[in-house]
């Protein structure tokens, strides 16, 4: 609804909207064939409007009411640690943890499936025993959830289900409260800001002290995801309430696919959050590796891709003493010790339960995919059915880093390591081996890599802004979980729960970034949402721990492009002092919406206010990255950008441009030197991308780095030139 047309006879927006619904009820009174219209939510912060159950005739009546702007059908959303803080170098003696006091008193609102409040990750030991004055939220009672379950760590919990009930009028909710019955919200919220928990592990794997990225931040859960469904009305209501409650950061690991910005509840609510200085951190989606599969490609929020981490589990120990780190998550410390290692052509094909059953108790079977074209997953199925004492599988599949393997006492090793194992098995009369479970190895190289499942850009909602923004750890992340759900199985009939679970997805990457945002918000409370996002993007690293470009597990022979990883892996400590930032105002985003030729009502749906104007429509948003598209037939490109950077260093500074050219294209920067006289001074520069010559590469990428003469700062922006067919 148009806020400027708010009738002053009403005290609140709710009164106005309720009156509208009541008048429709009166108009349809006596019509027994129709369900009475029902008001579900009124929105006062994320947008000015309401959600309601209406017939098509009633909707048409609403469109004739004073102040009507637009109406959209409800939609379904898709939902997309002990070591990751070390992998991100947060445990250094100085840096972002210490500068922010571990995120003390920053409030993170998590929009998800609820929370398991009894988890050790949500205890309030060490937390300040008063809530921040800005906090206006509450702990809402419900089924198996009372107010005493909140504390000074989990300071708020609310739930929103009117939309899912309206979509399924006869539904009975299995858990009508903020309690988490799926585990997703418990996992993401503890990743953001879980407290310290000693001895956390997944059946002995990844054992250590679990903690969130911002362990002293406060948490508020807004449950909008239900076993019975997840709809836009509830998501918007949760985000609307989070803004009203006074959160500093919103973390949302879900999104809406194939929807324009003015119909996307996350886009609408995150605009209102951005206006109040609240950065929304969101997941890119799990539909990779296809390009253009990303959701939440919204220009005013942070979009996070998922990467692997430098950790693996389990080891194979040969009789000659050689130890090989492998991959297993068998959920028990099984004794598979000094058994014969069996390798021969008939047995090691591992493609017959009958053949394997004959040697099931004889030793450890080495299964070789080279002996049969059967997939390793089928080999595992045969081995499981044959009840082998132990098995070794061979694979270089990047999917091993994204999914748990562990129904049988087995381990996966790489093809390179397999060579020495096969050589040992063939050269010894009585080769033996052991499989060591519940062991954890860190420092594995190369890492990180772009996870194959992580959705890729360009953004379908608006491809002119490079998305995703950054990459964060998302594969096999250990965090709190619902202790009554299945987390592992032994064979097909033993089901096991766990207080902590290893999960993979951009849902796991998003809260890592949200936690860093919370730390940065504590260190720089005056920074805008755009400034914080800029600091994350320009300090991210495109290199893995071998100092080579990050690889793409969706395309194993290739380095990852910014369409997969954005600017690269998040680098928290560097965000504290980025040198330069690319800031943006709400009007800047409105200028972009105007350039998209959105109608006045479509823009008003997002902005909620007529105070913005379309005097300067522009696609050239002041963003810390660059993307241009070329025509597949002519390959013609001439794209010009203008950017303004703010010096947030300690004083005068001179920066010089260094460009890594995308293949087949020429990038020029002018001026090539930026000389700042004082802190917070703003200077502008231009970038031109031109076609150079034909090359076969479909996607070309490089970067622009502004390097300070003193060497104190390097401010990096990725550059992508892609075929228009990707959009």
From TrEMBL:
SUPFAM superfamilies: Subtilisin-like. One of its GO terms (biological process) is response to symbiotic bacterium. PROSITE patterns: SUBTILASE, SUBTILASE_SER. It is found in: Secreted. Gene3D superfamilies: 2.60.40.2310, 3.50.30.30, Peptidase S8 propeptide/proteinase inhibitor I9, Peptidase S8/S53 domain. It comes from the Eukaryota. It holds the Pfam family Peptidase_S8. InterPro entries: Peptidase_S8/S53_dom (IPR000209), Peptidase_S8/S53_dom_sf (IPR036852), Peptidase_S8_Ser-AS (IPR023828), Peptidase_S8_subtilisin-rel (IPR015500), Peptidases_S8_3 (IPR034197), S8pro/Inhibitor_I9 (IPR010259), S8pro/Inhibitor_I9_sf (IPR037045), SBT (IPR045051). One of its GO terms (molecular function) is serine-type endopeptidase activity. The active site is at residues 112, 184, 507. Residues 103-555 form the Peptidase S8/S53 domain. One of its GO terms (cellular component) is extracellular region. Belongs to the peptidase S8 family. This is Subtilisin-like protease.
């Amino acid at each position: 609804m148009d806020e400027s047309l708010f009738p002053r006879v009403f005290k609140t927006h709710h009164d106005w909207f309720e009156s509208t619904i009541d008048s429709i009820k009166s108009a349809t009174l006596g019509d027994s064939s129709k369900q009475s219209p029902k008001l579900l939510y009124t929105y006062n912060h994320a947008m000015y409007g309401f959600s309601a159950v209406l017939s098509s005739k009633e909707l048409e009546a609403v469109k004739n009411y004073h102040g009507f702007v637009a109406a959209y059908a409800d939609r379904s959303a898709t939902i997309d640690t002990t070591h990751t803080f070390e992998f991100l170098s947060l445990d250094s003696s100085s840096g972002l943890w210490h500068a922010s006091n571990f995120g003390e008193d920053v409030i993170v609102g998590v929009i998800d499936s609820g929370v398991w409040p009894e988890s050790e990750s949500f205890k309030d030991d060490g937390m300040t025993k008063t809530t921040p004055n800005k906090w206006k939220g509450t702990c809402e009672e419900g089924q198996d959830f009372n107010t005493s379950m909140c504390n000074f760590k989990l300071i708020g919990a609310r739930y929103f289900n009117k939309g899912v009930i309206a979509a399924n009028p006869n539904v009975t909710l299995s858990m009508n409260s903020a309690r988490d019955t799926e585990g997703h919200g418990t996992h993401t919220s503890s990743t953001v800001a879980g407290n310290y928990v000693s001895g956390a592990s997944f059946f002995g794997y990844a054992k250590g002290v679990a903690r969130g990225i911002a362990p002293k931040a406060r948490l508020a859960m807004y449950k909008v995801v239900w076993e019975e469904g997840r709809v836009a009305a509830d998501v918007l209501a949760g985000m609307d309430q989070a803004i009203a409650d006074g959160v500093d950061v919103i973390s949302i690991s879900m999104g809406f696919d194939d929807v324009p910005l003015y119909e996307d509840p996350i886009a609408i609510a995150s605009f209102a959050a951005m206006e109040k200085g609240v950065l929304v951190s969101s997941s890119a989606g799990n539909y990779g590796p296809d390009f253009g599969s990303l959701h939440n490609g919204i220009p005013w929020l942070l979009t996070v891709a998922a990467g692997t981490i430098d950790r693996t589990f389990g080891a194979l120990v040969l009789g000659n003493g050689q130890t090989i780190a492998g991959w297993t998550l068998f959920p028990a410390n099984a004794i598979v010790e000094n058994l014969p290692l069996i390798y021969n052509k008939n047995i090691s094909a591992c493609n017959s339960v009958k053949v394997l059953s004959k040697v099931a108790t004889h030793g450890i079977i080495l299964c070789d995919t080279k002996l049969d074209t059967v997939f390793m997953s089928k080999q595992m199925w045969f081995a499981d059915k044959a009840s082998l004492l132990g098995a070794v599988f061979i694979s270089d599949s990047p999917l091993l880093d994204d999914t748990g393997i562990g129904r049988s006492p087995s381990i996966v090793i790489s093809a390179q390591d397999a060579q020495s194992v096969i050589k040992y098995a063939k050269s010894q009369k009585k080769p033996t081996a052991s499989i060591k479970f519940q062991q954890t190895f860190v420092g594995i190289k190369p890492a990180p890599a772009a996870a194959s499942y992580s959705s890729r850009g360009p953004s379908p909602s608006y491809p002119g802004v490079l998305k995703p923004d950054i990459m964060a750890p998302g594969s096999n992340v250990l965090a709190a979980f619902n202790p009554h759900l299945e987390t592992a199985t032994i064979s097909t009939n033993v089901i096991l729960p766990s207080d902590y679970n290893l999960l993979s997805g951009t849902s796991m990457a998003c809260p890592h970034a949200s936690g860093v945002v919370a730390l940065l918000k504590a260190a720089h409370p005056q920074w805008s949402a755009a400034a914080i996002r800029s600091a994350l993007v320009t300090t991210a690293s495109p290199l893995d721990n071998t100092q080579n470009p990050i690889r793409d597990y969706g395309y194993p022979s290739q380095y990852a492009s910014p369409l997969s990883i954005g600017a690269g892996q998040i680098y928290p400590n560097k965000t504290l002092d980025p040198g330069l930032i690319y800031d943006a105002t709400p009007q800047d985003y409105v200028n972009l919406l105007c350039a998209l030729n959105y109608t006045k009502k479509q823009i008003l749906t997002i902005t909620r206010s007529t105070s913005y104007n379309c005097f300067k429509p522009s696609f050239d948003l002041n963003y810390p990255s660059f993307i241009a598209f070329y025509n597949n037939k002519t390959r013609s490109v001439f794209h010009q950008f203008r950017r303004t950077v703010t010096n947030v260093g300690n004083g005068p500074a001179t920066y010089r441009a260094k460009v890594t050219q995308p293949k087949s294209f020429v990038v020029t920067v002018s001026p090539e030197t930026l000389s700042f006289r004082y802190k917070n001074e703003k200077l502008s520069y231009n970038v031109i991308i031109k076609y150079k010559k034909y090359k076969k590469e479909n996607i070309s990428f490089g970067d622009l780095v502004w390097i300070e003469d003193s060497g104190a700062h390097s401010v990096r922006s990725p550059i992508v030139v892609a075929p228009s067919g990707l959009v």
